[in-house]
Each structure stands twice: as C-alpha cells, then as structure tokens.
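Q: My collaborator sent me two sequences in one message, no labels, and asked for predicted structures for both. Can we handle them in order? The first one she listed is below.
A: Yes, handling them in the order given. First sequence, followed by its structure tokens:
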Amino acid sequence: MNTLTPPLPANFHGACQLVHLGVIEVSGSDAVSFLHSQLTHDLALLEADGIRFCSFCNAKGRMQATFMACVAQPSVVWLVCRRDFLAAVLKRLSLFVLRAKARLRDASDDLSIWGLVGEGLPAPWKKQDRMGGTAMGLYPAAGKARALWLAPAGQSPVSTSHPAGLDPAAWLWGEVISGVADVQAATTEAFVPQMLNHESIDGVSFKKGCYPGQEVVARSQFRGTLKRRAYIVSGPAMQAGQAVYTDGDAAQECGTIAQAASDDSGGGVALACLLTAVDQDRLHLARPDGPLLRLWPLPYPLREDI
C-alpha cells in the first residue's frame, strides 16, 4: 500500500462559495431534542463550541442523508447537507416531528455557505465566530485545515488570510482527500454509517438512546458483521454510484463509488465503499475490464473498539 496521499490541486488555499450545499433549519423549543432522537450523534450533550457530523438513517440503518449539525441559537439548529436531495430529506425528516415543538424549513437561500482552507480555522467538529459568520471545522485534507462558513445571505468571509479564488472543484477534491464521505442523491440509502467509516471520524454515538436504524448500526459494530469499508482511490473521472470490480471476481461488483471529484485533465479521486476481502491491487471502474484504480491510505485509523 502506498504511504502518500493523492496530490492536492495547486493553490489549495482561500475561500469559495459552495453552491452544492444547502441548509435545513430546525427551530423551536424541541429542536435539539427532536434531532437527538433522529440522528446518529448526541446533540443533547453538544458543547457550546461544538458541531456534529451525523447521519439520518432509515429503519434498516441505511443513511438517507449526512449532516453537519450546528446549534446556531438555543432553539435553532442548522443541518448542512447536499442540496441535490435536500427537499426529499426535509420532507422525510418532517414526518417524524409529530407533537414535537419543532419547525423545519429550507433555509438555503437565507444563508451564504462558503468553504475555507488555510490557517487559523477551528479544529474538526468545533465552531467559532469569524467575519460575522460561523466557521465549522472539518477534517483536514492532506494536512490543510478546512472549514464551512455560514452567515446571512450576501455576506462573505473573504479576507487577507482567506482570499477569494479557491476553485470549487479543488474544494470537492479536498473533500475526498479528507476521507469523509457525504451521502448524496446517487447514494442515499446505499450504506450503513460504518461502510463509510463514520464511526471512525466521530459520526456515530454508541452511547445515546434510540434513533431510526440504531439497532442495525449497533449490530454492525459489535457483532463483527461489517464487510465493507471506504477507501480513497484515484484514476479517471468518476461519479458517485458507479460500480467497482476486482480481477478476483469479474462477475460481481466489489464496491461502489460513494463520492468523487475530478480535475481539468480528466483525472479523478473518489471514496469507494469496498469489500474488505477483495484484492485491492486490481480494482477496475464501472466494469470488470474497466480502468484500473489506485488505492491510497486513509488519513485516519479505523477504530476497532468504541
């Protein structure tokens, strides 16, 4: 296995607006307790400067969405997710409100969402006030600190330390290199959290109470039934949802592309959910004789015990 990471794009520094992301706003006196009962992480014990990376699962433990969850005010929570299926997730999550005093709405048009890369950003899963908005620390990409920045629409975090000009395509490349995969329209309900290593990057709490799919998620963790994990691969341009094959079994796919990014030259990187037992040196994209994929190490250790 290689000991390096795929190279980052040139000039991977600065700020760019992230039009592929949106925000579900949950407000009301029961906003936190409602979400605590629906998502994979513990929002009830969230620190004042904390955020949560978490999932919304169906009854079978399959992820319908992933969120960056931030308590913006005592009775207001922001859920940042992929915009391509936000409306569907909002509709599904709203079905569980019942008598809870919580109101859900699409607040994407009311907020500016930017990506920041560079110095002085909050640590992963922490937030800080910055330039009139809220910066939310993400996992780094090849050692480069990253954060999401949210503020009222029209505002910008551009500064001398984080100038405008970061290419949105470079941001997407950094998302993959960080090793943290989002669920998107092409992959909704395709994976349980551990298939994308979410227990290893603090995306799941195994100490909180019930939420949809909790029994399946816990069983996967503690009974050793998990046979798939996420890995970083590189090759030609890829798309989420594409199949991956190995020389060892040309008749059946051994994995799925979970998240992908590409560059101007036609090259790509991706997070692929793969069977852990396959020959990872002979991976092919889309078909058994498709382009070869190169496997790279993860930037974090996989946790054996929680």
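Q: And the one she listed second?
A: Here it is, processed independently of the first:
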Amino acid sequence: MKEVRELPGYVTREEIAERLPLIFPDGTPNRNYCIRELAASTIFTMLYIGAVEGSGRFLAPKHVYRMTDEQAKKGDPGSRLAYAKEALKPGFHTPGHRWYADNTREPIRDETLREGLVATGAVHLRTDLPTTSSKPRYALTPSFAALFEPGLKSDELELAIETWRKANLSRGALARIAIQQSGAAASKDGVVVTFPNGETRRLAPGPSSVISQAVIEEFSRRFLIEPVVLWLSESGNKVVSRDDALAAKIGLTIEPDKNLPDMILADLGEDEPLIIFVEVVATDGPISDRRQKALLKLTDAAGFPRDQVAFVTAYADRSTPAFKKTVDNLAWHSFVWFASEPNHLLIFRGEQNATGGLKGL
C-alpha cells in the first residue's frame, strides 16, 4: 500500500489550467508550450498516475492521449494506478472519448515536454533509457508537483510559485519575466527615466515608456562610452526631451517635422561622435529599410559619415508578439536590443559590416 499513499492529491485538469499562467507568466521561454490545454492535460495525467520524480513511476505520451473524461473522473488510488499500467498496453481502451488522437504523441513529447516543461525544470527526463526506447521516461519534479496541491490557495500559492521560479528558472528567464511584468504594471503616474547626465523625465505610463527607460538607463550604459540623449519622444509625437544646442555642436540639426525616431542618442566618447537612432517597439514601428534610408538623408545632409551612424530597434523581449510581428521588416545594417537581455545585441549584417561602432563590438 506504500505506492498508493504516495500518489499526489487528486486535482482536476481545469484547476491545473488555472494555475499554469500564474506559474509561467509572460516572458517565460516557450510559454505557450507550458500553459496551453495540452500542457494542462499532460500535467494532470502525470499527477493522476503519480509520475513524480522519486516515485518510480513515469509518464509516456500515450498516457495523455489515451485519457478520457470518464477515466479522469475516477479519482480513487486503485483506478489511477491501474490506468498507469494498463494504458501502456497495446490495444488498451477505456470508456469514453479520448482526449487526443495517437498523432498527438509528437507535440506532447517535443513541444509540451522537452521544449516546455523539461526546459523550465518542471519535469525530470530519465537519462538511463536508449532514445529509441518506448518505455515511459517523464516525471514531474517534486517541487513543481507541489504547486498543484489541492489545499494550496491565495498567498500561500503565490509564495510557493515565487519560490519555485527562483529555484528553477534561469537568471535570463527571470529577467524576461520581470521586464514583462514591469511593462504591464507601469505606474499610472508614469515612468521616471534618469538620463546619463543625472536629469530625470517622467514618461507616460505604458510598455513603450518602460522600454524607453531601459534603453536610456541600461542600453546606453552598456554599449556607449559617453552617452547623451539628443531627442526623446512618446507616442503621438509628444517631445519629452530635446537638446538642440548639443546636437548643433556636433553638427546635427534636429527638425521635428522630419519624422524623427523615438529616440536619438549620441556617444561622445570617441574623437568623432556616434549618432544612434532608436525605435522603441511595443506593438509596431521598427527600423525598417524605408526608415533607415529616411534617417540617413538627415545625417548625410549634416555631413556625417555613415560609419558614424547606427540604428537600433528596441523590444521588451524576443518572445513578444511585437518582435515576431516586425522581425521581417527589420533593416540590414541595424541592431536589435531586448530590454530583458540587456547585455546582448542582435546584429543584422548586410553585405558589408554592420553600420555603427557600438562599444564592445
């Protein structure tokens, strides 16, 4: 009877589906694989049969796609353990309509498990089996299984989830989650930005302002030697800050009616200044070929060599719909920067070296 007592508490698939978006918030790598119905079905089945690391029981994809509503309602330990063994046998049939067809094996194995739950530390993968073996090989980690205890509610659940995230998600994943949450919860009073010279400006609330703040406070510090902000605007073409005197000193004329980008930075740390045009993308509007050509006309007219001009499109995170929507329109000879991964740049090189001389490249 020891094996029976070790079965996790019974929890419905619907309850699991409600908790998954809380455990895996926006910014989690491959989040869709972790929170969709197929993920809830897989986790339900693992808990149902007791496939938790250390129990000696493991899940195979067929446990999931052979499950039915009728079987799932049988919550007594005997029925659950019987299903764990019988569902693996050829020709197995249980009353009711199967949750999924046999050809769901690959999405369960490759997406939900390996790319989703295994990659985030929620599921343990057996390594003592040949890759060609059909034996069950997946089990929930005990700490993740504990997040679905039926009695875990409210503040206690929130604390357990936060503890699990800190212990299992990478620093990069946690950073991506944090930037997404800060964008979603930007204060109604706006976002306060500290400029490189120590001055502050208050931007309107919203995700674009959070990205702009990150560009000024994080990007410029990491990739420019002596950064300054020449121009900063918000949605609706509201000018937050402009420095015509400094721009004129380095030979650049800022004309608002010239369809300027969200931000113009300059790096004064070298003998010749570097001009950086930045587009902040929360929904749309990257540095496209058309935008790049229009902005180069401005710097050409000012007499700037093109190797002293750089173009950056800034996003909150590479998992956001905004990046996936606009990546096809990004211009060659430009950079992409993600606020959630501030130490990295994505470089779109053309036939020659990418335009610009950002520090560290």
